[in-house]
Amino acid sequence: MKPVALVVLGGCHVAGYPIGHSQAFPAQLNELLGGQLVGQVAHLKFTRLPEHLRLIDQLQPTHVVLQLGNHEFADSFRPLLRQLRAVLWPQPPEPAGAGHTTKPPKPTAPPAAAASAWPLPAAQVRHWLRVGGLSLLTTLLWLLSPAHRRSFWALNACIRRHPGTSFIFLSPFPSLHPTQNAVRRVGGWLLRRRLVARANCHWLDSHRLLRPSQQLFVDASHLNRRAHQVLAYGLATAVLANLDALL
């Protein structure tokens, strides 16, 4: 059996933030498999993916784990609208010396009023309207942005170029924020459908492994050691299920 040589690409969880590198799921997975973690990139934005795929060409790993989308599939309208505006209405660069005018101070927001006791159905309506709006803007961005299209093209080309390497994708992780959790589910659906359908391309739904429970989180968005351990065991099962192709 060919020994496992592993490359892991993804966000801050790849580095084990905030629990530490040795407790992160790549380190735990490597220990379970008794293989070698030959390459690792953390804090990776999806639009910067092409430049890091060269690592796969250089190292020729048996398995690549990609954990993408946590940073991009968020619950805030402002960054999405800013990115969409840049895609739809690109602005020419400012001339040198421009943009240095003194900005007036922002007015101080009045203190927030006490939350009114909305009935539950109305709160649910607001929640799903927000989820729907964020999901629509995210989908438009990922479909229209040239940077996102380049990343998908490079990723799918890499999968085709390495038929002997297993590519295992982790869906965006759960969150204790209900809106963010729902948007990440939509983001996982979008990611999965933009990937090329190949025998060496596999998808692991982290929402089936992990529930948005306080027992699995350090804070609202970051997983604890127990959750990383669950991910490592889930990935190890996926890796071992595909080792026959490497005999």
What do you see in this structure?
- The protein is α/β, with parallel strands linked by helices and 247 residues long.
- It contains 9 helices and 5 strands, in the order E-H-E-H-H-E-H-H-H-E-H-E-H-H.
- The chain has helices at residues 25-33, 49-52, 54-59, 77-88, 120-144, 146-161, 178-193, 206-209, 225-241, and strands at 5-10, 36-41, 63-67, 166-170, 201-204.
- Strands 2-1-3-4-5 form a 5-stranded parallel sheet.
- Helix 1 (25-33) packs across helix 9 (225-241).
- The longest helix is centred in the middle third of the chain and has 25 residues, at 120-144.
Helices and strands, with pairings:
Blueprint lengths: L4 E6 L14 H9 L2 E6 L7 H4 L1 H6 L3 E5 L9 H12 L31 H25 L1 H16 L4 E5 L7 H16 L7 E4 L1 H4 L15 H17 L6
Parallel strand pairs: 1-2, 1-3, 3-4, 4-5
Helix pairs in contact: 1-9, 4-5, 5-7
* Tally of separate helices: 9
The biggest sheet, with number of strands, parallel, antiparallel or mixed sense and barrel status, is: 5 strands, parallel
Task: Report the uncertain regions.
Answer: none
What's the count of strands?
5
Q: What's the helical proportion of residues? A: 40-55%
Query: In angstroms, what separates the terminal alpha carbons?
Result: 5 Å
What is the string of SSEs from the N terminus onward? EHEHHEHHHEHEHH
Task: State Rg.
Answer: 21 Å
Spatial strand arrangement across the major sheet: 2-1-3-4-5
Helix/strand-derived category reads alpha/beta
| Overall morphology | globular
* Multimerization status: single chain
Amount of beta strand: 5-15%
Mean pLDDT over the residues: 87
